[in-house]
Amino acid sequence: MSRMTEQPLDMGQLLRETENDACGALVVFGGIVRNHHAGKGVSGMSYSAYGPMAEKVLAELEQETLQKFPVSECRIVHRTGDLAIGEASVLVVVRAPHRGDAFDGARYAIDTLKVRLPVWKHDFYEDGSDAYQDGVPLETAASRDAENSQ
Amino acid sequence: MLTVELFGVLQQAAGDRQLQLDALPEPPTVAAVLDQLARRHPALAPHLRRVACAQGDSLVRQDQTIDTSRPLVLLPPVSGG
Fold first, then answer.
1. Cα nearest neighbour of B60 on chain A
2. Do the Cβ atoms of A84 and A33 come closer than 8 Å?
3. How many structural domains are present in chain B?
4. So what's the pLDDT on residue A1?
């Protein structure tokens, strides 16, 4: 499965791709389209992405998670296009010998994705209005260096 | 002539997915491009302070000069996940 896809995310395939007999822990994080945002009812959501960079960011984040934590497997996939309430927009699968490391790795992967992945949510509300969600400025290598030097 | 590609709220503000800029210094810095954009497309100006910029699959800093034969991609604050 490509890391960025317009197709529904296939958790079963990710679990098969990451099977590892040395791992006693499996953590899956799923981001799901919910039916409200900022006090308004949401009827659906559209995700857009800057594809050339998004695929690279996810590949690098998988490798970074494997290097920073004692985890053995890390796969991240993100959906684009129009999603209905209840559909998965992102899946993070981490396997490790022990559960603490698997939780830590998965948490790091999704938290870092939130500041590095060039993807934008466009909400469609039940009242007929729509809006791009206000996000966080993209974390760059320069901003990471500045943060680390503080 | 430089093509500027827009994403997210920038598309909504500009009413288009891409813009063309000419009469830029050669080669322009990213900062010079953003300055021109703010002047020629005032609706984008409030958003430009928070954008990151890229060419291809790599980010470019505001003080970098760019090759105008490749699109400059403007990436507003992100909201993936």
1. A140
2. yes
3. 1
4. 73
